[in-house]
Amino acid sequence: MHQRMSAMHSGKALTNAVFRFVLVLVLPAIMLLIMVKGLEVTNHINLPVVDVATQVIQQDGKPTYREVALPHNYTLGSGFSYGQYSLVLPKAGGDTTAILLPPFRDTLVMRTGGELIWQTAPVAYSREHMMPRFRYQPVYHELPNRLFNGENLSVSIDIGSSGGLRLPQIYVGTPEEVKPVYHRQYWSQIGVHKVMLWLTPVITLFYLMLWWFRRQNSEYLYFALGTVCWAMTNMTFTISNLPISQHIYWMLSVSFQPLLTLFMVLFLHRWYGIQARKLEYGFWRVSLLLVVASFVLYEWDPQYIWWRFNESFLRGFVALSAVYIGYILLWQACLRHSLSALILAISGLVGVYAGVLDSLDGMQLLDMYFPLSIHANLLIFLTLCGLLMYRYVSALNKSEELQKTLEDKVVEAVKRFEQEQSIAHESEKQRALLTERQNLLSDMHDGLGSQLVELITLLRVKSVGREDLQLKAQQCLNDLRLILDSRNPLFETQFTVLLGQWRSRIEPVLEASGIDLVWSLDICDEEMHLSAQQKLDLLRVFQELITNTIKHAKDATRVMFCCQMESNSLHIQITDDGKCSEEQDDSDHGYGLASIQSRVKRLGGQCHFQRGTSGASTEMIIPTGKEAGNRT
Question: What's residue 132's pLDDT?
Fold first, then answer.
């Protein structure tokens, strides 16, 4: 089943490719045929026509006359050729008689009785002579009726051309009859030239700007250069009334043809993404070589060698390039299943076909009376502009769709992130509450719980005095206050405030015991990097030391508390002047001092005790740097 489906798919693809191939080959030919039929307005002219003339041929210095039918072609030898004819023009009504010549390639000089009465353009007798005219354009002229002898006017006509001789049909009538026909012919055939006269620089500038802003798209640059070369090769079509000598005209119109095909090849390679660097280098070398050789040979021998070079090498290279361009268009139209490739192939082959027909007409193998390339190039330009606009709109629509999709994904991601953040925040909140509850229970168990157990134990001993019970109860109360203060936000930053609060609670207890407190404090809160739990442990150490002083320092009258900050550490010294007996010294190695040493060690500090008959002293060094806050 799978093989059968694959075979059907392959057959359908092959049928589609063949259909595209036939369409691209046949449709341009049909379009050109329609174009030719539309441009052949001569067949629809309803005016009196002079279609018979007498040709004058010089043989052995003697004129020979023969009747010829118009239009008439005659080629004599090579180089510049001239033909002489005599004919009779009928007179029309009114003051003047209007004559119309359909589009032709040559220069016509009209005389009567040896007097010049009209000339379509200066005859190019030499290569330096000017050529200020369109080629292939229809010609209109009015002859005063006073020149006529009765109803007719006998005239002699000289036809001059650098490529051959041609005497067209001549239509006559009143100006009111001939002018509409002339304008209709002019604008149907030369009007496109006028349009291209303005479109060529606009199109060139447009593509150059596209390339300037999107330099990675070099196809725009090559198309602009190709447009310039096309304008140079068709100067008599695209530039009106510019005095161009034969020399300049031929060098520009012929020598730029290889560059035109070169840039069109490079354009198609970039447009379709074809990687053929070696072939492109070959086109570059051959094109530049032909251009240089054309200039050199024209200066050396334009009458024979240059003409042979132009008719063989130049035209041969252009023809081969046109075949290759047609191959690219055909191949891409069959390979790519896109409408743009099909449209570009059809319009491009219209240009290729038109160039071939114009070349045949230039070699006088066809009688078309008008050029086709100018119309085909206009079609190509408009097609490319439409494809560029389609490419831009498609890219813009795709960009907007991608942007909308991205915005939807961002909104969805933000919602999902907010939901996850909310869940994480709630989870963190629950974790923080659980941690706080555990810390509170641990603090109450380790601190207040042990104090209450000790108080209960003392109550069971009948020999314990009231002052000892009162001191132990006060110690339980102070420990409870420390636990509550540790939950205060001030515990996070201001250690000096905590010391002040602890002093306000411990100082009345010392005064009740007849002990004076000497306070010395020199620390900076900004340099304290202790956590709340570490501050609580430190305050409990202070409280335990003061409690030991009250309980065990006999006859003590003063206790000195000194706390200073040096080199990211606290230097603490607590000294009293009480007396300590040997029995008391042994008992002091109990729970209180062990608890102090354990807390100091957990803070990463050092503790040193000194006792004697003249007093007791405790010295501690507690680190306060950033590494201290990270210690667990």
Answer: 45
